[in-house]
# Entry
Amino acid sequence: MIFINLLTIYHEAYDESVDDITEFEETHFQTNHCIVGYYVAKAWQLNNDIADKSTYFKSNDQDDLICLLKMAEHICKLYEGIGGQTTDHEWERNKAMILAHMGLSDLDFDDLQESTHDQLGL
# Structure
């Protein structure tokens, strides 16, 4: 079964040595989370723009929705839960570009992160 070691594979994918998670997924699963996201969006009958965006994401894409997604992933510590990592290596590589695109300073983001953690009890 192809997904038997899913968590182990994702721990390796979130390791700092992996630059492109989608390519890593392609190697192991012959698909990636962008393609799965597209089909989920279509099945849920979400707006076509949302479904289409999920198919072409790359880590240096400067689209508002993608930047917002990357901020949310970092704030909720997806790198710990799914990735089994103590450091969000993808965030560290892309933080400056994401914050610049969203017009946020480090302090602005820290305030947003703290406020979100307080509101969600994280």
About this structure: Helices lie at 6-13, 21-29, 33-43, 48-55, 64-75, 78-81, 89-102, 106-120. The longest helix spans residues 106-120.
